[in-house]
Inverse folding.
C-alpha cells in the first residue's frame, strides 16, 4: 500500500512540475496535447533559422510554457524566394483546391488536444495545412487554433477549419498581426501566449 501511495505522490509532483513550467501555473492537463504549426519562412528556399517567423515564435512559446511537443508541418515543395512568388503559388493552390504533399507525415493519433497554428493566406489556411488535416483522424479531438496575418484578421480561416473538422470541437485561441508578434519582447510574447492558454478547457 505504501508503494502505491508513493507512486501516486510522485505522479502528482511530476504533473505539478509540468504545469508550472517557466513559473507559470495552469489548471489544465497538457499530457495529451501537442502543438502543430506551419511556418511560411521554413518553406522557402532562403529560410534563415536565426529569424523565426511569427507562427513559429508563438508555437515555441506555447511549447515552452506547457512542456508539450511542438510539431512542424513542412511542404515537400518549397514556395518562392520572394514574397510575391510565394503569394502567387499560394493563391493558385487555393483557387485550385490543391493538396500539396507534405515533406514528412505528422501523426497525432496519441493526442487528444491539438493546438494548431498557421499564417492566413488569402483569407484561409495554407493548402498544405489542408493536406495534413485530411490525413489525420480528428474524431473526438479538441482543436485550438492560433493564427497570424497581415491585415485580414481571421477572415474565412476559422470557418474553413470548422468545415474541415466536422467531428472535432474547434475553438479560437490566439490571433495577431505577424509583424506585431515579431516585434514583441520576450516578456510580451510570454504574456500574450499565457492569456491564450488560459482559455483552454
Amino acid at each position: 500500500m505504501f508503494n502505491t501511495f508513493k507512486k501516486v505522490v510522485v505522479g502528482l509532483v511530476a504533473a505539478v512540475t509540468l504545469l508550472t513550467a517557466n513559473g507559470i501555473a495552469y489548471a489544465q492537463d497538457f499530457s495529451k496535447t501537442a502543438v502543430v504549426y506551419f511556418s511560411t519562412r521554413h518553406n522557402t528556399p532562403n529560410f534563415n533559422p536565426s529569424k523565426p517567423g511569427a507562427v513559429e515564435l508563438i508555437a515555441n512559446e506555447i511549447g515552452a510554457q506547457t512542456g508539450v511537443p511542438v510539431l512542424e508541418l513542412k511542404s515537400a515543395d518549397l514556395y518562392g524566394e520572394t514574397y510575391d512568388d510565394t503569394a502567387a503559388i499560394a493563391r493558385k493552390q487555393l483557387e485550385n483546391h490543391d493538396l500539396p504533399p507534405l515533406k514528412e507525415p505528422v501523426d497525432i493519433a496519441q493526442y487528444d488536444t491539438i493546438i494548431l497554428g498557421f499564417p492566413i493566406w488569402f483569407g484561409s489556411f495554407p493548402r498544405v495545412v489542408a493536406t495534413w488535416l485530411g490525413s489525420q483522424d480528428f474524431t473526438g479531438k479538441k482543436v485550438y487554433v492560433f493564427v497570424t496575418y497581415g491585415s485580414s484578421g481571421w477572415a474565412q480561416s476559422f470557418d474553413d477549419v470548422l468545415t474541415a473538422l466536422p467531428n472535432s470541437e474547434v475553438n479560437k485561441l490566439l490571433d495577431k498581426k505577424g509583424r506585431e508578434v515579431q516585434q514583441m519582447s520576450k516578456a510580451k510574447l510570454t504574456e500574450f501566449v499565457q492569456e491564450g492558454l488560459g482559455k483552454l478547457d
Notes: The first strand starts at residue 33 and ends at 38.
